[in-house]
Amino acid sequence: MGAKVRLTAVDLWRMGEGDVRRELVDGEVIEMSPVGGVHGHVAARVTSRLSRYLEAHGGGWVVVGDVGFILRLPWDPERVRVPDVAFVAAERLPEGKLPAGFIEGAPDLAVEVPSPNDNAVDLQQKVRDYLEAGARRVWVVAPEARTVTVYRLDGTARFLREREVLEGEDVLPGLVIPLAELFGS
Known about the structure:
This protein is of the alpha+beta class. The protein has one domain (35-183): tt1808, chain A (Alpha-Beta Complex), CATH 3.90.1570. Helix content is 25%, strand content 29%. The chain is built from four helices and 13 strands. β9 (137-142) and β10 (147-152) form a beta hairpin. The longest helix has 21 residues, at 37-57.
């Protein structure tokens, strides 16, 4: 039996868009299951709030769906993660523009909306990956629990309940999202 081939971000890009979302972890393609309606609805609400903020204030881009970020971690320099929603500051991008391909580095803000069948260990690994690669914030928006956990680059975290508000802090100054709006019907 031959040695297993370690794939690269370029290999993943060449696979093209397909019927399944893919990430690259330790040189292996990880295929992700389709998500449900609640997941899509909550991700759309987060996207809408971020988009409205950026239309009013500028400063970067919000991306959704299957946008890959090459994280360049010391132990896995070709790791590609695909957050449900992400914000990338224009100042981080060459000429302030999004590339046609994967985005180099972590997003400034990564948003993960876990589905009921997601593995908690895998989700925490994603949070760690984003932060280790330089994401300034990671939001885990949990529709089933109606909570958000905000993870910061400095290692601190804050747990928010439905009656509280989510703030953009220094990543998106002035952004305030009442959590009840994200989880409303």
